[in-house]
Write a structure and sequence with these properties.
Layout (H helix, E strand, L loop, with lengths): L2 E4 L5 E4 L2 E2 L5 H12 L5 E2 H9 L7 H16 L8 E5 L2 E5 L6 H14 L3 H13 L12 H27 L3 H14 L4 H13 L3 H19 L5 H11 L34 H12 L7 E6 L6 H11 L8 E5 L12 H11 L11 H12 L5 E7 L2 H4 L10 E6 L4 H7 L2 E4 L5 H12 L1 H6 L1 H11 L3 H13 L5 H12 L12 H13 L2 H10 L7 E2 H8 L3 H13 L4 E4 L2 E3 L2 H12 L3 H27 L24 H24 L3 H10 L1 H6 L3 H15 L3 H18 L3 H18 L2 H17 L3 H18 L2 H17 L3 H17 L7 H13 L3 H17 L3 H17 L3 H17 L3 H14 L3
Parallel strand pairs: 7-10, 7-11, 8-9, 9-10
Antiparallel strand pairs: 1-2, 2-3, 4-6, 5-6, 12-14, 13-14
Helix pairs in contact: 1-3, 3-42, 4-5, 5-6, 5-14, 6-8, 7-8, 8-9, 8-10, 9-10, 13-14, 17-19, 17-20, 19-21, 20-22, 21-22, 23-25, 23-26, 24-25, 24-27, 27-28, 27-29, 28-29, 29-31, 31-32, 32-33, 32-34, 33-34, 34-35, 35-36, 36-37, 36-38, 37-38, 38-39, 38-40, 39-40, 40-41, 41-42
């Protein structure tokens, strides 16, 4: 994956073209302050000065650390080994390829342009550099450091623009520059270089008098404002214009540079292609033999399954010699039911790399990408094959500007906008002709079998209506039963045809649907029933247990039936134990599902939703434990719903990973069915999974749905939803929105008399204020939460909150009070017979001892915490405590023990996919060096 950073405008980061949530403006300023000195260490004090200037908040260092921690978490999705925020002994360092930062990319491009002797190359480099700017550098950051740097960078940008103007003027592009130069001259009346450029543009435009007049205006302004005359270069230009010097004529253009690699990206031709001779000829006429001077674009359009991609691949592979400079190909997934459409800028990046542009040289701005792409394709004879396009907007940025290229597009849409704006030719693809369909069947089944039953083959061809997908399904059924006469298959199609209507929204012939009906009828009754029930599921795929729950069958029996469906090509096992349908087949299954009696359909959907809810509930208990606040009590699962209970935490995480998208679909399905309680309970089950993997956007989405559903289910559900949304906003750094949700939750909890709910909310409020750097206010909320927990007399929650209060005292440097609260918490855990729950408190006591110079005591506490964490298999907290213990070993100069602790923590973090924490520990180990 590739991470790109942008500070020349709004502060942004993108991973393979997808934006990264960097939090609020102040947190973004931390990233910007590090990006300016990419690969160089910035001291803590210098960072504080850059971010806050002379107005730092109280205890700004913890606030800075929290910002850096959240930035690390936000960037972990990049999975980019070259991008890290490293902790060094003297501060922090962001490591990255310099070209991934638009600021450094801008400076490098400008430097390259100034080194090159070729005007075309220099102009291209400067254009790329200037395209990187999206607005004022660093947006609205207003500290003295950012303000001064912004002015410096804007001067660099202005100078680069003037460099570009010089090249344009040398090549006779004065007419395009006049308006901009006039504006620049007005804004910069003392800039002699701008004055000279405007004079030259006016002279080349046949306006020497205006050029001379501007010189006099500039000379007068310089004298009045600065008391000086124009410099020698401007005076000499003035004299040359006066003398009509012939050397001011525009020289001839420089030649272009060397060629680029030849990409050969076409997919293999289809192995059993049949017919389409007319269409192949039309493609040759429109793409290879078309009129000169215009870009040839052909759109192959038709319904799904009709063979558009096969036709395109077949023609392209037959005609590679017509495009000696290469062929580019991409599947844009416009209508893929399980994969989102590919964004044009992502496609552009792939094409640019195929054309020889190094990844670190690809511009971040989509407009700059498209411009570079068109430049590279200029005058080259290349084919661009764009497969499965959704709409014209997906195509436009991928169109070359040179008529020497050809573009071949496949889509289920006609793409009329592409025809109107770019002159694209349309090639509608219909079903195969009878002869072509016969040839396809013969190629699949063998000539001997098809020639012995010509009438049956003719009937199959007729009732498949020439759809390649339907013919493939019939051929698969016939191949599965080599002893069955083909006449049996044909007779079934005939019987089904008069009862079924068109399958596809594009109004395909009725017999196409008969193919699927016949395949369904050929199944055993149990498999046929399962196929219809699969049409009720709304997720992108389905696991074995979920399919069993949907059908109300044992998993072992369901596996056999799914194998039968897979053999009939009605679904595909794309991963072990997970099944997916082709989108057209899925439409047919959904239609069958509509015909299921309403009571039976409702029962099946209840079973499916109960399967997901109760399986998720069981998996979440392994992640969160049985004491999670606001724990719901789902109704007993419906009989036959087959919920699963993962064996351990690792299995629970795998289950959530596999079923995550299906859970989101189930939540939406529950909302549509009015099962409001299931909606917010599903959201509850996803809390730990989403937060543990920093999937904040999805977390917010499910809780927004939960909040809407909670409106039907009482104050407790609404309180929970507002609480969780407040927590999410706090994690995202939007503290104002977080406080708004939490205050709303608090009002509801107070109105309903939910004391425990109030305690949970105050606990979260304390964390919000801690993240905002107001530890005193955070402590007040933590104390209030403790009083409420004591009121509800829940010893475990009391003990946890005593630890939180102790922790906040420690953050304020009140270590005596901190130690007293944590020791009280530890005693309460032990009194309740839950000593393992005191492990986090022992970790806090270790932290307190470390910061009061009692390093030996700290190691004792950390050792006890580690023992308890290991007893219950809590490897996440074990890793955190190992990091803390390493700090104490380092304070005692026990460097061998430091390495042992941190290396073990690193291994655990990696095994838990906690990339940010792993990166931090790796940085610590590197900074440790040879100590």
């Amino acid at each position: 994956m590739r991470t790109q950073f942008a500070v020349l405008g709004e502060i942004e980061a993108h991973v393979d073209g997808r934006p990264v949530d960097l939090g609020h403006l102040r947190q973004r300023s931390v990233l910007a302050a590090l990006l300016v000195d990419t690969n160089r260490t910035v001291s803590i004090d210098r960072l504080g000065d850059r971010i806050w200037g002379d107005r730092p908040p109280q205890r700004w260092r913890p606030t800075l650390y929290s910002y850096i921690s959240r930035l690390r978490q936000a960037l972990e999705s990049a999975d980019d080994d070259e991008v890290r925020i490293r902790r060094e002994p003297s501060g922090y360092q962001l490591t990255s390829v310099l070209s991934a930062v638009d600021l450094h990319r801008f400076r490098d491009l400008v430097a390259q342009a100034r080194r090159t002797q070729d005007d075309d190359s220099a102009a291209s480099l400067l254009d790329q550099a200037l395209h990187l700017w999206r607005g004022p550098a660093f947006s609205t950051l207003d500290t003295p450091w950012f303000t001064a740097l912004r002015e410096t960078l804007h001067h660099e940008r202005f100078t680069a623009e003037l460099d570009r103007n010089d090249i344009a003027l040398r090549h006779g592009h004065h007419a395009h520059l006049l308006a901009a130069l006039t504006t620049h001259a007005t804004a910069h009346p003392l800039d002699e270089r701008v004055a000279g450029q405007l004079m030259l543009a006016l002279h080349h435009s046949g306006r020497p008098a205006d050029a001379l007049r501007h010189y006099q205006d500039t000379r007068r302004t310089l004298a009045e404002e600065l008391g000086i005359d124009p410099g020698r270069p401007l005076q000499e230009l003035h004299q040359r214009i006066l003398a009509a010097d012939a050397s001011l004529a525009v020289p001839a253009r420089a030649s272009t540079g060397p060629g680029a690699p030849v990409p050969r990206q076409l997919p293999a031709p289809p192995p059993l292609f049949a017919g389409r001779d007319e269409e192949l000829g039309q493609l040759t006429k429109s793409l290879a033999d078309g009129p000169d001077g215009t870009l040839a674009i052909t759109v192959i359009c038709g319904p799904g399954g009709v063979g558009k991609s096969w036709l395109a691949a077949q023609w392209a592979n037959r005609n590679t010699q017509r495009f000696p400079d290469g062929q580019l190909y991409i599947n844009l997934h416009g209508f893929d039911p399980s994969t989102p459409p590919v964004a044009p800028d992502m496609a552009l990046r792939g094409f640019l790399e195929a054309l020889g542009v190094a990844r670190d040289r690809v511009p971040t701005d989509p407009g700059a990408q498209a411009a570079l792409y068109r430049s590279l394709l200029a005058d080259r004879r290349m084919l661009i094959l764009l497969d499965d396009v959704r709409d014209a907007e997906q195509v436009r940025p991928l169109l070359p500007g040179s008529p020497s290229c050809a573009v071949l597009v496949t889509s289920r849409n006609r793409l009329s906008a592409l025809m109107a704006a770019h002159g694209a030719r349309l090639l509608p693809v219909d079903v195969l002709s009878p002869a072509e369909a016969h040839a396809l069947l013969a190629g699949r089944l063998g000539a001997e079998r098809t020639t012995t039953e010509p009438a049956a083959v003719a009937a199959l061809v007729e009732h498949c209506a020439g759809l390649p997908l339907a013919l493939g399904i019939v051929a698969a059924r016939a191949a599965m039963h080599p002893d069955f006469p083909l006449a049996v298959l044909a007779e079934e199609l005939v019987r089904a045809a008069d009862r079924l209507t068109a399958l596809d929204p594009g109004d395909l012939a009725v017999n196409v649907r008969a193919v699927f009906a016949a395949s369904h009828r050929a199944l055993t009754p149990a498999a046929g029933r399962l196929f219809a029930f699969l049409g009720l599921a709304q997720g992108p795929d389905l696991g074995l247990a979920a399919a069993a729950g949907l059908a109300g069958l044992p998993p072992t029996r369901t596996r056999v039936l799914l194998a039968e469906l897979e053999g009939a090509h009605l679904l595909r096992q794309h991963r072990p134990g997970r099944y997916r349908m082709h989108d057209l087949v899925r439409l047919y299954a959904a239609e069958l599902a509509d015909a299921i009696p309403s009571e039976e359909s409702a029962s099946a959907q209840v079973r499916l939703l109960d399967h997901y809810l109760h399986s998720a509930f069981a998996a979440n208990l392994l992640l969160d434990g049985p004491y999670t606040p606001f724990r719901p009590e789902p109704e007993a699962p419906a009989t036959g719903s087959s919920p699963v209970t993962p064996e351990d935490t690792a299995a629970a995480l795998r289950w959530f990973h596999d079923e995550h998208d299906c859970l989101l679909a189930a939540q939406s399905q529950a909302a549509a069915l009015g099962r409001h309680r299931v909606v917010w309970q599903v959201a509850w089950t996803l809390i730990s999974y989403h937060l543990g993997r920093h999937r904040l956007q999805e977390y917010v989405t499910v809780w927004q749905a939960a909040l809407a559903a909670a409106e039907y289910d009482g104050d407790d559900a609404r309180t929970l939803a507002h609480w969780r949304l407040g927590f999410a906003d706090a994690r995202a750094g939007d503290h104002a929105q977080a406080l708004d949700h939490l205050r709303h939750a608090l009002t509801l909890a107070e109105r309903s008399g939910n004391i425990a709910g109030q305690a949970h909310i105050y606990r979260t409020l304390g964390r919000v204020w801690e993240e905002r750097g107001d530890n005193a206010r955070a402590l007040d909320h933590a104390k209030h939460a403790l009083r409420l927990y004591q009121e509800v007399n829940h010893p475990l929650w009391q003990a946890n909150q005593l630890n939180a209060v102790g922790w906040m005292h420690a953050q304020l440097g009140l270590y005596t009070e901190a130690r007293a609260h944590c020791e009280e918490a530890l005693g309460l855990f032990r009194a309740q017979g839950l000593p393992a729950h005191g492990a986090s408190t022992l970790d806090s006591l270790g932290y307190i001892a470390h910061h009061t110079g009692r390093h030996r005591d700290a190691l004792v506490h950390y050792g006890q915490a580690l023992e308890l964490f290991r007893e219950v298999g809590d490897t996440a907290n074990e890793a955190d405590t190992l990091v803390n213990a390493g700090d104490t070993h380092r304070a005692l100069h026990q460097y061998a023990d430091v390495r042992i602790a941190w290396q073990r923590a690193l291994e655990l973090y990696r095994s838990q996919d906690r990339a940010a924490e792993a990166e931090d520990v790796r940085d610590r180990l590197e900074a440790l060096g040879d100590e």
